[in-house]
Amino acid sequence: MTAARFLVVLDADSTLIRNEVIELLADEAGRRDEVQAATEAAMRGEVDFATSLRSRVAALEGVPVSAFARVRDRIEPTPGVRELTAAVHERGGVVGVVSGGFHEILDHIAPGLGVDRWRANRLDVVADALTGRVDGDIVDAAAKASYLREWAAELGIAPHATVAIGDGANDLLMMDAAGLGLAFNAKPAVRAAASLVVGSQDLSQVIPLLP
Q1: Model confidence over 189-208: pLDDT tens digits?
Q2: Roughly how many angstroms between the first and final C-alpha of the chain, as a whole number?
Q3: Which of 44, 115, 119, 203 gives 110 a disulfide partner, CB atoms 3.0 to 4.6 angstroms apart?
Q4: Would you please indicate which residues are annotated as catalytic (active-site) residues?
Q5: Which residue segments constitute the domains of the chain, with CATH numbers given?
C-alpha cells in the first residue's frame, strides 16, 4: 500500500455541504429560527461552541429518529466537492471530515462524497426519539485540531502536508494546526485568520492549492 502524500480535512456544515444540519433537524421541531440564530452566534465565535451546541440540541427534544431520513434527503453537497475529493485521491492524498454536526447524517453522505474518514457528534436517542442531549464527548474546536493531528500521524503525513478547510470559529484551531488553513464560505474572523481565503463557493477552486 502506497503511503499517503497529504491530508485534507474539511468541516461538514456549510463547507462539505451547503446546509447546517442542526437547523434542518430544528425544522422538524418547529424551532428553526431560534436554533439558526444560536448557530450563527457560535460560528462567529461569540459564544462557546460546546455550550451553544448543548443548548441547540436541547431544542431537538422529541424529534423522532424518522426525521433523519427526511433531513438526509434535503442535504445539498457543496459545488465542486466531488471534484475536489477526486483530485485529492488522484494526487495520493486522503480526505477527512471533522464536524460539530452529527454522525447520524454524516455516516450516510460522507462515502458518496469521496470522504475517507470522518468524526462528528452523536445524538442521544430513547424510544426512537431525540432526548435533547449529545451522546458522548462534543466535537469542538480542540477536538477538530486533535483529529487532524491524529490522522496525519497515523498516515505518516508531516504537519506541513496537511490542509484544513472551514467556515466558522470552531474551525480555527484545526486551520492553525494544518500546514495550510483555508477559509471557505467563512465568517469574517475566520477569513482574517486563514492562510488563504477561497472566494468562490466552489470547492473545486481548492484543487490548484493542493500539495
Answers
A1: 899 999 999 988 999 999 99
A2: 20
A3: 115
A4: 11, 13
A5: 6-209 (3.40.50.1000)
